[in-house]
Design brief:
The complex is a heterodimer of chains A (530) and B (331). With 530 residues, chain A is α/β, with parallel strands linked by helices. Chain A contains 18 helices and 22 strands. In chain A, the strands form 5 sheets. A 6-stranded mixed β-sheet of chain A has the order 6-7-8-3-9-10, sandwiched between helices. A 6-stranded mixed β-sheet of chain A has the order 16-19-20-13-21-22, sandwiched between helices. A 4-stranded antiparallel β-sheet of chain A has the order 2-1-4-5, with helices on one face. Classes of the chains: A alpha/beta (530), B mainly alpha (331).
C-alpha cells in the first residue's frame, strides 16, 4: 500500500541555510513533512520558499544544515541525487519540450527501449496514457506538447513527475493556470497520493486552496520559519499576519471612483477563433473587470483592442478617434496601453537595469529631434521607483535579479510613466506577494483617481471583485453579461464565468455603459442574485 | 547583484568606462608586449601605421556593431556590400568624383535597406538571410562584370586619379582614413547612447517581444540598424577600392568575420542589447596590435588568421560562461 515506503516523518530539514552573495536567502529553517501529509508552504515572494525547495531538489551544493529523508541523512548536491532519494518537483514554470509528444515528455529520461536501443512506441504510449488518465487528461499521448493548452501542459508536467514515483512531491503554485474544475481534479489526485503515503509540499499564495487541501501549514518570512500550524489552528488572518507581519484591512472599500464620459468603445469587435461580436464601453476613471475562465478569450480581446493582435471585424475608438488595428505603437502614443500577462516573455527587459525598463515606453516622448533627454528619463525613473516602493539594490540593478513582485511593479510603472488614458491590465498581480499586490492596487487606484480608465483582467477573484466598478463576463469568446459593483461577489463572478447564471442581454449592457455614470434600474431586476 | 549598488545613478558614460576597461587593459598589455618584441614597435610611425592598418576594419565594425547590438547577430553581406559599392563607384567615375561616390554609397545602402526590410518586417533569420545575400551578390557581380576587375583611369586630373588618391590623403601625418574612422566612431557612440534610435536599438536587442509590446516599432529600428551597417560598409568599401586601385567582387572578403570579432571582443554581446562603441574601438585596436606584433614576430598572414580565430573562440566562450554564471534569464 505504501507508495514511498515510509511511515511517519518522510522529510526532516534541520537548520537549513543557503547564502547568496549579499543575502541569507534561507536562514536556519526547520521543516518536517510526514508521509501521507499535505504540508502547505506559504510566504511572500522573496521569503525563501523557492530557495528552500531548490535546496530540496538538489540545485545547490553549498547549503548548510541537515536533511533526512525516510530517517536517513542525505546530501542533495545535484538534481540526480534528489531524484534518487525520491524528491519530485513540479515547478511553476513548465519544463516540457514543446515539439516532442506528450508521451516522450512524460517518460523523458526513461523511454522504454528494446535491446537495440530503439524506442518501443507501443509501450511508451501505453504507459504514458496510464499516467495521463491518472491526472484526468483525455489526451492522445502522441500529440505534441506544443499543441496543447497551458493548463493541460501543467497536468502533463505533474504526470511526468509522478511517473518517477517520488516519495516526496513538491507542487509549486500548481493551480495558477488551472480552471476551477481542473483544480478540483488536481485536489482529488493529491488526496489519492496522500492515501498512498506520499509526503506532499504544497506551495501556494491562495488561502482558500490551502484550507481545502493542507493538513499543516508552514510560513516563511525573510528566509526564516515563522511557524508551523495545523490547519485547525490556522485562520486566514493569522496566516496573512505571519506572512506579511501586518494585518490587512479593507482598503478596497476606500475607493470612491469618479466616473466620467466614455473614453474607449469597442463595437462588434471580432477576431475569428478567439472572440466574437464584442461591444462595450469604458469610462474615464472607471475600473472595468473582465471575468472569464482561462481560454475564454480575455487576453486575446485585450491584445486586439490595443493593436498588438489583429482584428477581423468591428472598431475600437479611443475618445473621438478610431484606433488603427494592428498599430500598437500608435495606440501607445495615443494613450491606450496593455500590460502583458507574461512579464518574462514580452513584458520586461530582464537583462537591462530597472531604470531603463521604467522609461522603455517613453523613448519617443523623451526625445527632442531624435536625441534623448536623460534628465527627463532619470526624473521619471526616480519618481516611479519611490512611488511604487520597488525593492532593488539600486535603479541600476538588472531587472532579472528582482523578485517577482518587484518585477511586476516595474512592469506596471513602465505604463504609469506614459500617463495613459486607458490601461488594459492582464493579470497585474499574478504570483505576487501580499504586500506587492497591495502596492500595485494602490497604484492602480491612484491612476484611476487621476482619470485613467482601466480594463482589469484577473483570475484573482478577490482582486477582481475588490477593484472593479463593473465586471463584464466572458465565456467562449463572447461577452455573456455584466455585473454592477453592488452585485459583485466572488461566487457570483465564478458562477457567471462558468455559465451558470442568468443575465441581462449583453447588448443592453453595452448601451447602458455608453450612457455614462447614471445607473439604470436593471440591476434590481428579476432575481439576478445567486 | 550589481557591483555599483551605492552609486545613485551612474550615467551610461560611467558604465561604458567600467565595461570597456577590460579590452583597454588587453590593449595596454599588448602595447607592453609589443615594446618587448621590438624596439621599433613603440614609435609614432608604427603606431600610426597600426591605426591606418585597422581603419577599414574599424569602419566596418562600427556599422556591424549596430546589427549585433540590436539583436541581429551579424550582417554577413557586408563584404559583398563593400565590393559592390566600390565597383559601382568605379563604374560611375565618368560622371565625376562626387556623383560616383554618391552612387557607390547608394548601391551599398540599397543592399542594407533590403536586408533591413526582410529581417525587420518579415522576421527572416539575419544570419541566413545575409549569408544568402552575400552569395547572391557575389554571383551577381561576377556575372554582370564577367569576372573582370574594374580599373579607374589614373591620368592625373581625372576623377579616377582623385578617387585613387582618396585612400592616400593625409591631414599632416594622419591619413584621412584614420580621421574618417574616428569620426564614425564618435558619431556611432553618440547615436547609440544619446538618441532615441540608439535607445530603441538596445531595447529591441534585449528583447524583441518586450520592445514590441512597449510600443516600439521594432521593424523600423531593425531596418535602420542594417542601413547603418551598410552605410559604414559602403564607406569602407569605397576606400578599399581606392586603396587597391580597382573594383572587384572579392574585395571585402574576410571583413565579416574580423568585424564580428572586433565587435564581440569589444564587449557587445552576440545576444544583443549590451555593449558600447568605445569597447568596439578597443576591440579594433586589439586586433590591430595583435596583427602588428605577429608581423614583427615574422608570423605570416594565414597563421595570423589562426590566432584571430582562436581569440574569437576564447572571447565568445568567456562571454557565454559569464552569462551562464548570471543565471537563466541571461543565457
Amino acid at each position: 500500500m505504501s507508495y514511498g515506503g515510509t511511515i511517519g516523518q518522510a522529510l526532516v530539514m534541520e537548520a537549513v541555510s543557503k547564502r547568496y552573495p549579499g543575502t541569507l536567502a534561507v536562514d536556519r529553517v526547520d521543516l518536517d513533512v510526514n508521509a501521507g501529509e499535505v504540508h502547505a508552504l506559504m510566504g511572500e515572494n522573496g521569503a525563501g520558499k523557492s530557495t528552500l525547495m531548490k535546496i530540496l531538489s538538489g540545485a545547490f551544493n553549498d547549503y548548510s544544515g541537515l536533511i533526512r529523508i525516510g530517517g536517513q541523512t542525505v546530501t542533495l548536491h545535484s538534481p540526480s541525487e534528489a531524484k534518487e532519494h525520491g524528491v519530485g518537483m513540479v515547478h511553476q514554470e513548465l519544463s516540457l519540450a514543446r515539439p516532442l509528444s506528450i508521451a516522450e515528455n512524460v517518460l523523458a529520461g526513461r523511454l522504454p527501449a528494446n535491446r537495440w536501443g530503439l524506442i518501443q512506441r507501443k509501450a511508451l504510449f501505453d504507459e504514458a496514457r496510464r499516467w495521463l488518465e491518472y491526472v484526468g487528461l483525455a489526451l492522445d499521448p502522441r500529440q505534441a506538447v506544443g499543441e496543447i493548452s497551458p493548463h493541460e501542459a501543467q497536468l502533463v508536467e505533474i504526470a511526468k513527475v509522478l511517473s518517477n514515483k517520488p516519495c516526496i512531491l513538491v507542487l509549486d503554485e500548481p493551480t495558477s493556470s488551472l480552471s476551477r474544475e481542473e483544480t478540483a481534479r488536481l485536489f482529488d489526485i493529491i488526496r489519492d497520493l496522500k492515501r498512498r503515503g506520499l509526503a506532499i509540499i504544497y506551495i501556494s499564495h491562495h488561502l482558500p486552496e490551502v484550507f481545502e487541501i493542507a493538513d499543516r501549514v508552514t510560513v516563511l518570512r525573510d528566509g526564516r520559519n515563522t511557524g508551523t500550524l495545523s490547519i485547525e489552528e490556522a485562520t486566514p488572518r493569522k496566516l496573512v499576519q505571519m506572512m506579511a507581519g501586518q494585518t490587512i484591512d479593507e482598503f478596497y472599500a476606500a475607493r470612491h471612483p469618479e466616473i466620467g464620459d466614455t473614453v474607449l468603445r469597442a463595437v462588434r469587435l471580432t477576431r475569428y477563433g478567439y472572440f466574437h461580436d464584442v461591444s462595450f464601453a469604458l469610462r474615464r476613471g472607471e475600473t472595468l473587470g473582465l471575468a472569464g475562465l482561462s481560454g475564454s478569450g480575455r487576453t486575446e480581446l485585450a491584445r486586439s483592442l490595443c493593436g498588438l493582435d489583429p482584428v477581423h471585424y468591428g472598431t475600437v475608438s479611443l475618445r473621438d478617434g478610431i484606433i488603427e488595428p494592428g498599430d500598437y505603437a500608435r495606440s501607445v502614443s495615443k494613450g491606450l496601453v496593455y500590460l502583458t500577462e507574461d512579464r518574462k516573455a514580452d513584458g520586461l527587459f530582464l537583462r537591462l537595469p530597472v531604470s531603463q525598463n521604467l522609461v522603455a515606453a517613453l523613448t519617443a516622448r523623451h526625445a527632442t529631434l531624435g536625441v534623448c533627454r536623460p534628465d527627463k528619463d532619470s526624473a521619471v525613473a526616480h519618481r516611479l521607483f519611490t512611488a511604487l516602493h520597488i525593492v532593488a539594490p539600486s535603479l541600476e540593478a538588472d531587472t532579472g535579479t528582482l523578485s517577482g513582485g518587484n518585477q511586476q511593479k516595474v512592469l506596471l510603472a513602465k505604463w504609469l510613466a506614459t500617463k495613459p488614458h486607458v490601461l488594459l491590465l492582464d493579470e497585474p498581480t499574478r504570483g505576487v506577494d501580499v504586500t506587492a499586490k497591495r502596492q500595485i492596487h494602490e497604484a492602480i487606484m491612484t491612476l484611476t483617481g487621476q482619470g485613467t480608465a482601466v480594463l482589469l483582467i484577473s483570475s484573482d477573484l478577490p482582486e477582481l471583485v475588490g477593484m472593479s466598478d463593473r465586471v463584464l463576463v466572458m465565456r467562449q469568446g463572447r461577452l455573456i453579461g455584466e455585473m454592477e459593483r453592488e452585485e459583485l461577489s466572488e461566487e457570483a463572478v465564478l458562477l457567471a464565468a462558468n455559465g451558470h447564471y442568468a443575465f441581462r442581454a449583453p447588448d443592453a449592457a453595452a448601451s447602458n455603459a455608453g450612457r455614462g455614470a447614471v445607473r439604470t434600474t436593471a440591476s434590481g431586476q428579476e432575481g439576478e442574485h445567486s | 547583484m550589481n557591483a555599483q549598488t551605492t552609486l545613485p545613478s551612474p550615467r551610461s558614460a560611467a558604465r561604458a568606462v567600467l565595461e570597456t576597461a577590460g579590452i583597454y587593459a588587453v590593449a595596454a598589455a599588448l602595447l607592453v608586449a609589443g615594446a618587448l618584441v621590438s624596439p621599433d614597435f613603440l614609435t609614432a610611425e608604427n603606431l600610426l601605421s597600426i591605426l591606418s592598418g585597422v581603419a577599414l576594419l574599424g569602419i566596418v565594425a562600427c556599422g556591424m556593431a549596430f546589427v549585433t547590438y540590436s539583436g541581429n547577430m551579424a550582417d554577413l553581406s557586408l563584404p559583398a556590400t563593400m565590393a559592390f559599392s566600390g565597383i559601382i563607384a568605379v563604374a560611375s567615375l565618368s560622371l565625376g568624383l562626387v556623383p560616383a561616390l554618391l552612387l557607390g554609397m547608394l548601391a551599398g545602402l540599397a543592399i542594407g535597406a533590403m536586408n533591413g526590410l526582410v529581417v525587420g518586417k518579415l522576421n527572416a533569420n539575419p544570419i541566413l538571410w545575409t549569408l544568402a545575400v552575400a552569395f547572391f551578390m557575389e554571383g551577381f557581380m561576377r556575372f554582370t562584370w564577367s569576372n573582370n576587375q574594374l580599373y579607374p583611369e589614373i591620368e592625373p586630373g581625372t576623377p579616377g586619379a582623385a578617387f585613387i588618391g582618396m585612400f592616400r590623403m593625409r591631414a599632416g601625418p594622419v591619413p584621412l582614413i584614420v580621421l574618417v574612422m574616428i569620426a564614425l566612431f564618435a558619431v556611432a557612440h553618440f547615436v547609440m547612447t544619446r538618441t532615441r534610435f540608439g535607445r530603441e536599438s538596445r531595447l529591441a536587442g534585449s528583447s524583441r517581444a518586450a520592445a514590441r509590446s512597449s510600443g516600439i516599432r521594432v521593424s523600423r529600428v531593425v531596418f535602420f540598424n542594417f542601413l547603418a551597417a551598410a552605410f559604414a560598409a559602403s564607406v569602407a568599401g569605397i576606400f578599399l577600392t581606392s586603396m587597391n586601385k580597382l573594383g572587384v567582387f572579392y574585395l571585402g572578403q574576410g571583413y565579416d568575420f574580423k568585424a564580428v570579432t572586433a565587435v564581440v571582443i569589444g564587449g557587445v554581446m552576440l545576444s544583443g542589447g549590451r555593449g558600447h562603441i568605445p569597447g568596439v574601438f578597443g576591440g579594433v585596436l586589439v586586433i590591430g596590435l595583435l596583427t602588428n606584433i605577429l608581423t614583427f614576430l615574422g608570423i605570416t598572414a594565414f597563421r595570423q588568421n589562426i590566432v584571430t580565430g582562436l581569440v574569437f573562440i576564447g572571447v565568445v566562450g568567456f562571454q557565454q560562461y559569464q552569462l551562464r554564471a548570471r543565471g537563466k534569464d541571461y543565457a
